[in-house]
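Problem 12. The chain below contains 118 residues. Write out its predicted structure in token notation.
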Amino acid sequence: MDADGGNQKQLTVDPAMDIQPTVTPDGRFVAFTSTRSGTPQVWRMDIDGGNPVQRSKGDLSVQPVCAGDGTFVVYSVLAPDGKQLVWRVPIEGGEPEKMSDLPVRAQTISPDGTLIAR
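Solution.
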């Protein structure tokens, strides 16, 4: 929607749960958590809701945050052993990479997406 609340548009119509949206600083993409692949995973779509693409893989992935420069999505992975770890994946696509072996409950990300505070 516009800053004044006008021109509202629904972005998702999938029957799955789509939650935790976050927008890249350049306004091009929305990253969000969705169950459309069966388990909660991080997805990315264009700002108009088009071209949804799953970005995370494997274990339960939630709480996406767009890195300050907009090139990465940082998110939490709930591992089978109960630990909550931090991963990141390029917003445009690529392989996810683990950022921390330490359990994390919430993350704050450096502007370049390389450091996290816990």
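Discussion. The beta strands are 18-23, 29-34, 41-46, 53-54, 60-66, 72-78, 84-90, 97-98, 108-109, 116-117. Students who got a different answer should revisit the alignment rule from Section 12.3.
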